[in-house]
Design brief:
With 383 residues, this protein is mainly alpha-helical. 48% of the residues lie in helices and 7% in strands. The chain has 15 helices and 6 strands. It has a two-stranded antiparallel sheet with strand order 1-2.
């Protein structure tokens, strides 16, 4: 009797292979769909568009992606808030949103926009050059032009008491400590980080100069001078000098005025730029500064309500008036020893230096004018 072999196991094996092929096909389709979706997501996140004008936008602490996206749409930064909120969640950017003022542009692709909002390292760099002698207000404007920081947010950081204490700055602002140089900074940077970067560079440069002139630094320190006083005087030298070669002589004039017991008016630096800077700080509070446009007037030099007016207040002004160069710092730390007490602008953007007021009168008058007919008075402008 012949046995018939069962076909059930064969059918079951065929069914399992068929089911496996179906699942592999389904898995392949899912994977393909995921790749297509992921590629589309990546491409959408990095699509290019024409960029609009810079918009200052504040991110509130703890804001959720949906609310943020709606606010961005209302500000004109983006047009698809729901998609961008989804992008923030899918890219896990929501928890990393950086509170504060950001510089954004309509037309930024989602990836670039998210990079700014989270201030991550995917942002591009901006090359920032700070000219020697710029003050904090000029630096703030340049930062905004280069899309590094909001001007007002930077100025607020410069005057933040906690940040100033952290950086060891014994003044009401970081003015003078923002070293003029060229920096590579991220676009839409944290203003406090920008201040730290510039101040740390000033500290580094100052230490190098102080080490080179350690004997003179010790000599000045014995008279009560320190880094802050050097920076204040260097900031004035920076604004007065017509060329780098004059830094030392101008520094010597100011030291002679501060230290000579016989000079009158006693310890008056009589520097026009200090009065002008006081007007920048307190235009509303100082009557003579109401119409200040960058030109120092005689009325401003007579106004004692301006605490930066070194024609009315002896000694150094309350703080720096600009951010001095390394050369100006070196000049005030180790100036030449001279007998000069006066200087006045001469030809070729240079100054004429004088030991006595009579010499100074003749320098003001120029050749061919008899002494005493210049109209200059003791204590008149150094210029």
């Amino acid at each position: 009797m012949t046995r018939r072999r069962s076909t059930a196991p064969r059918r079951r094996g065929t069914a399992r292979r068929s089911a496996r092929r179906r699942w592999l096909a389904i898995g392949g389709l899912v994977l393909l769909a995921g790749l297509i979706g992921g590629t589309g997501f990546w491409a959408w996140g990095r699509r290019s568009a024409l960029l609009g004008e810079v918009i200052e936008f504040r991110v509130e602490p703890g804001i959720q992606p949906e609310a943020l996206s709606e606010q961005l749409a209302q500000a004109g930064v983006l047009q698809q808030p729901k998609l961008f909120a989804w992008y923030l969640r899918m890219s896990r950017s929501g928890p990393a949103l950086a509170p504060g003022v950001h510089l954004l542009r309509p037309g930024l692709n989602p990836a670039a926009l998210a990079a700014r909002l989270t201030r991550n390292r995917a942002r591009p760099y901006a090359k920032l050059t700070i000219p020697e002698g710029y003050n904090q207000f000029q630096i703030a404007e340049r930062l905004r032009e280069r899309e590094v920081s909001s001007a007002q947010a930077f100025l607020d950081a410069c005057q933040d008491p906690a940040l100033l204490a952290e950086l060891g700055i014994p003044a009401a602002s970081a003015e003078g400590y923002l070293f003029p140089a060229t920096y590579d900074l991220f676009v839409d940077s944290d203003p406090a980080l920008v201040v730290r970067t510039l101040v740390k560079e000033m500290s580094r440069r100052y230490r190098q100069i102080a080490e080179r002139h350690s004997a003179r630094v010790r000599e000045r320190e014995a008279a009560g001078w320190g880094m802050h006083q050097f920076i204040v005087l260097a900031s004035i030298v920076e604004k007065e000098a017509g060329s780098r070669e004059e830094d030392g002589n101008i520094a010597s004039v100011f030291y002679n005025r501060l230290n000579d017991e016989g000079f009158r008016p006693r310890q008056m630096l009589q520097s026009d730029p200090t009065a002008g800077y006081g007007c920048l700080l307190a235009r509303e509070r100082v009557p003579s500064c109401a119409r200040y446009t960058g030109i120092v007037t005689a009325a401003m030099l007579r106004d004692a309500t301006n605490e930066y007016n070194t024609y009315k207040h002896p000694g150094l002004p309350p703080g720096p008036i600009s951010n001095p160069s390394e050369a100006a710092l070196e000049a005030v730390i180790d100036p030449p020893r001279t007998e000069y007490f006066f200087f006045v602008a001469g030809p070729g953007k240079r100054h004429v230096f004088s030991r006595t007021f009579g010499e100074h009168e003749r320098a003001i008058a120029g050749p061919g004018v008899p002494p005493g007919e210049t109209g200059a008075l003791p204590g008149a402008s150094l210029h």
